[in-house]
Amino acid sequence: MPLTCPECGGTLSELPVARPPRYRCHTGHAFTATDLVSAQARRNDAALQSSLRVLQVREQLLRRVAAVSRNIGEEAQAQAGLRQAAKVREQARRLAGLLEQETGGA
């Protein structure tokens, strides 16, 4: 799998004569190996944080839809929605735990 630029997502090329290694994408973003590791870590953290927010919003939506279903007498549909919400909550809990480990609780 090729290395990708954390700024634009383009493929990175290792500059052949640079020591220590340097990387550049087709649009001109350039990184030392240390800078690339740091930039990719920030991008990874942002993606995980975004995923956590998506899961939290999905859980809220599923619970709201379940409440509406219950209010109109669709108990089976309400229960199915609550089961799905519980699964999503567990996914969010696991992801939050992973994020806490990665950031040291910060």
Shape: elongated
Given the structure, what is the number of helices? 2
Strand order of the biggest β-sheet: 1-2-3
Order of helices and strands: EEEHH
Helix content: 55-70%
Distance between the termini: 31 Å
CA radius of gyration: 21 Å
Characterise this structure.
Strand 2 (22-25) and strand 3 form a beta hairpin. It is built from 2 helices and 3 strands. It has one domain. The longest helix is centred in the middle third of the chain and has 39 residues, at 33-71. 64% of the residues lie in helices and 9% in strands. The model has no long low-confidence stretch (mean pLDDT 94). The chain has helices at 33-71, 75-103, and strands at 12-14, 22-25, 30-32. Helix 1 (33-71) runs antiparallel to helix 2 (75-103). The two termini are 31 Å apart. The protein is mostly helical and 106 residues long. The protein has a 3-stranded antiparallel β-sheet.
List descriptors.
106 residues, mainly alpha, three-stranded antiparallel sheet, 2 helices, 64% helix, elongated
